Amino acid sequence: MSRSAHPAGPRHADVLPEGHYTAPADDLNALDPKVWARTVGRDADGVVTVGGIPVTQLAEEYGTPAYLLDEADFRERARAWRTAFGDDADVFYAGKAFLSRAVVRWLDEEGLNLDVCSGGELATALSAGMPAERIAFHGNNKSPEEIERAVRAGVGRIVLDSFQEIVRVAHIAQSLGKRQRVQIRITVGVEAHTHEFIATAHEDQKFGIPLAGGQAAEAVRRALKLDGLEVIGIHSHIGSQIFDMSGFEVAAHRVVGLLKDIRDEHGVELPEIDLGGGLGIAYTSDDDPREPHEIAKALTEIVTRECEAARLATPRISVEPGRAIVGPTAFTLYEVGTVKPLEGLRTYVSVDGGMSDNIRTALYDAEYSVALASRTSDAEPMLVRVVGKHCESGDIVVKDAFLPEDLAPGDLIAVPATGAYCRSMASNYNHALRPPVVAVRDGAARVVVRRETEEDLLRLDVG
Ligand SMILES: *Cc1c(COP(=O)(O)O)cnc(C)c1O
After folding, report:
1. Ligand 1 mean position, distance from CA 189 (Å)
2. In the CATH hierarchy, which top-level class contains the domain 41-70+328-460?
């Protein structure tokens, strides 16, 4: 399926982008609850509101572009994951999706654990008071300094990613007089993305130790011998934006196969298995993600069944959703600067941000939707491409969508489902100032990450 070739369509679009939006929605003013944060709606004047506050007011107060984060929704989704998996499993929020101290506190209060994968993420988590034993440290090339900080802090687990790291972490832990709890990340030869997964013998990518060729078994063999390590389990993460559970099924089958081999060879039953994250969310109305309780049920059943077949006690399961918790809880608010109809093609709508605040469209060919937020309109739909203000034609925020034909400079538009991998991957391209994250809840808004200033930029440039 080619997602990069889109035949251009006329404004009323009888030639429509392949694999997406077969037609404009019946009502362009409607806000599909699948893609919008839970407290989002429109007020009596037709203005989009979040947490009870109109976006026009938020724009005035905090400027645009801005990421508006629905705190109640974030907490509800975090809690839903926690409740779905219950006390016999652990939910680690993947901090790389979006991390700030406010978010760390919410996670702590809602009983979730936290994945970090750099010294910076670890520092953020610790400074917000997340108990170290509830932090997992990830990454394929943790520096010795990062490892030492993590071990000293007492993180609950370090996920080992290579043979060299097994020795490195063992050595550092031992030199600090500690025994570090670790999981070993393996690659099971399954790669899942959206509705498809591919099972191959070898996985040509940088993460983990391949199950193939007995390498993962050898890694466990070596780790079990090292005094500085307490091997608590096996870790597998198979992809991102996944809707189809069959990839997890194959992964769990292979991980449990390894646990069985470990039991047979060493007489040790490792007590934990981590199935990673990657659960999909709705970016457009075409996506149909599963609820946490369905995912929990499916994963628990798969692991239980595989363990029964292998005559193993069912290990404690952990999962690591990032996108599925934070993704749907935020949207980006932009102001329209120019509206440029290209006759016979489409209309380009330029906003005051772009690839610096959302790189996913350029990087992954991601799909997004968009709505007019500062008012409603009964005008006819026009096919648009929402683009940013950067010096690059690939600076696209929303590839194909419909907005009302009377869209004009000064209108506010909102792109939903930008909570994950937007602020966390934001850049200063063209010396853009990265937008703030404003958390809104019960009629009150507060900045949790402030907007960058030109002083911030100049402070780094020492001249
Ligand atoms: C990125 C990542 C996750 C989270 O992925 P999402 O798609 O945000 O759920 C979880 N675990 C690991 C190891 C990751 O690298």
Report:
1. 17
2. mainly beta
